[in-house]
Write a structure and sequence with these properties.
This protein has 21 helices and 12 strands. The chain is mostly helical. The strands form 5 sheets. It has a 3-stranded antiparallel β-sheet. The N and C termini lie far apart (75 Å).
Length: 580
């Protein structure tokens, strides 16, 4: 049986297992009876002592877990109501836990440079000064995990990694998987090669330790991942700092992570009488997410026991996608989180990412003169290209669309992710580019002042309208720019100018970088979702640096209008003026 057929048989077996898992109890998010399951987690989170559930599960323990559980159970058993008095609960927390953030050591990155070379490519003096500020921010976002986390792992939810990390910022005090791709790209432009390599080594350490890379650096993330960017991180590193020895040392672990996605997150789909293997997000894990315990618990309170476990699993799959949460995953009548069915979706962007991973791995193995492995990934790429075109391409709209496994339909709604195959070069026919650009123009997504909306639906979820997110802007811009189509390149620059402008205006106004921005209005951070908008911010900094590096001679800090942005606002005025 050849390599590709083995992957297909894995997929079929996994589909059968998936159907079984929904009929039995699902495993918990992790093995910790304090951070992932148990009476302490349940009572503390439902007491809502902290405004953010993540606060509690990021606290450290002052004693061993067994003693702390015993102390709590004594409190609980002494209560006649079955609920610990809130004052006693707060006292218990104060005497048994440390505040979040105590697991870090002081760290001053030795490879930080005040004037990295990319700054000299930025013509506009205000943008150049701003980019220098962003370069400074890496120092404030850097973290080194204390050795005590390694020595006493059961007293911390933080997962130990050997090298310092750059975190997103705000409530996100640990590394996050897909965020780190744009962080690393920014670090490389800042010539912080040691820090960037250290972060990649941390992710390789995760694969070696757990067989995959978790969503983030906490034990409560240990049963879900995020979009698989490890190989593309290495691609970025090699482009800036070619190191064949490092590549050779790392290639087996990159292949191991790829195998995780192909054995644990693949699914077989029949289209036009042929079976295709593609990938999805799928987390067969029960219980509320520990970092959002009270919200998940309350959402599911009226569901049956079996439906609750399925619902919790779907929420975690949405978290694995990075899009937590969005109408993109809704299939139902309530138009709320209760309709979340992430595991039914074959997402365009996930498969585009894996398409680029397969192409990059084939190149890496070729560079290492490992011809058999290179051939396997070249074959996998050919199958992926065929599958993406057969299953996800919609000829009537001229773009790729998410595919629903259950009702064998494509999601007709606009998402920037629909254009991800341009970014991944996951197509064969160049004529497709013109069709995808026409789709983008007709979609009305270009009409917003501050960039591409995440969707055109306003649901109150943060991965919906009116929010624009840095990674989506960058993937679309880079995808359009790398084509040979003039109009695509013009739109790419227009979108880059819009995104730089809204980030710059908000920075001037608030002296901060945010995780997301509102695509309407005069430059303000985004909103919605489960928590207040966070500042910092790792991937926002990285994306802006990349855009300033790409278009530094053309971007301006005082752009009033850009191509394609004036039409919907000015044309009606011109018509009225002419008529009068």
């Amino acid at each position: 049986m050849d390599w590709t057929r083995r992957l297909l048989s894995f997929s079929v077996v996994f589909c059968v297992l998936q159907k079984i898992t929904h009929t039995v109890d699902l495993p918990p998010p992790c093995n910790s009876t304090i951070y992932c399951t148990g009476e302490i987690l349940h009572h503390v989170q439902l007491a809502k002592i902290f405004s953010d559930d993540k606060h509690f599960v990021d606290m450290g323990l002052l004693d061993n877990p067994d003693k702390i559980r015993t102390t709590f159970l004594d409190l609980l058993n002494s209560s006649t109501s079955g609920i610990v008095d809130q004052k006693k609960l707060i006292q218990f927390l104060n005497t048994s836990f440390t505040q979040p953030g105590k697991e870090f050591e002081e760290w001053d990155p030795l490879d930080w440079h005040k004037n990295p070379n990319f700054l000299s490519h930025i013509t506009d003096p205000e943008l150049r000064s701003w980019a220098a500020d962003l370069n400074d921010l890496w120092k404030s976002l850097g973290r080194k995990i204390s050795g005590k986390v390694k020595d006493l792992p059961d007293r911390h939810s933080q997962i130990y990694v050997p090298n310092p990390v750059v975190v997103p910022g705000g409530r996100f005090r640990e590394f996050y998987y897909w965020d780190s791709y744009w962080v690393i790209n920014g670090l490389l432009l800042s010539e912080m090669y040691d820090t960037a390599r250290g972060m990649i080594e941390n992710f390789l350490y995760m694969v070696d330790s757990y067989g995959f890379i978790p969503n983030g650096g906490r034990v409560y993330y240990l049963n879900r991942s995020q979009p698989p960017f490890l190989t593309l991180m290495m691609e970025s590193y090699m482009a800036h700092h070619h190191n064949v020895t490092f590549l050779r040392e790392s290639i087996n672990l990159m292949a191991k992570e790829y195998d995780f996605w192909m054995t644990k997150r693949s699914v077989s789909v029949q289209q036009y009488g042929k079976n295709y293997t593609l990938n999805r997000y799928y987390v067969p894990v029960g219980g509320p997410r520990p970092e959002s315990y009270s919200k998940d618990y309350e959402l599911a309170v009226n569901l049956t026991a079996g439906a609750k476990q399925s619902f919790y699993s779907e929420l975690k799959a949405a978290a694995e996608s990075g899009w937590d949460f969005s109408s993109r995953w809704f299939y139902g009548s309530t138009n709320t989180l209760l309709d979340t069915k992430t595991s039914l979706v074959i997402p365009v962007d996930l498969n585009a990412i894996l398409c680029r991973v397969e192409r990059t791995m084939a190149k890496f193995y070729t560079d290492l003169n490992m011809t058999n492995e290179a051939s396997k990934f070249s074959t996998a790429l050919e199958h992926r290209l065929e599958a993406v075109q057969a299953v996800l391409w919609d000829e009537s709209l001229g773009v790729w669309l998410d595919y629903n496994i259950n009702d064998t339909s494509r999601n007709q709604n606009f998402y920037p992710s629909n254009l991800a195959p341009l970014w991944a070069s996951c197509y064969k026919n160049p004529a497709i580019v013109e069709k995808a650009v026409s789709y983008l123009e007709i979609s009305k997504a270009l009409s917003y002042q501050n960039g591409l909306p995440t969707s055109l639906k306003e649901t109150g979820q943060q991965w919906d309208f009116p929010n624009g997110w840095p990674p989506l802007q960058h993937m679309v811009i880079e995808g359009l720019e790398k084509t040979e189509y003039k109009k695509a390149k013009e739109i790419a620059f227009s979108l880059a100018q819009k995104w730089v402008t809204v980030n710059f205006d908000a920075y001037k106004k608030y002296n901060a970088m945010y995780e997301k921005y509102n695509v309407e209005g005069d430059g303000k951070p985004g909103g919605g979702g489960e928590y207040e908008v966070q500042l910092g911010f790792g991937w926002s900094n990285g994306v802006i640096m990349q855009l300033l590096d790409l278009y530094g001679s053309r971007l301006t800090s005082s752009a009033i209008s850009t191509p394609f942005s004036w039409i919907p606002f000015t044309l009606p005025l011109l018509i009225i003026t002419f008529w009068v």
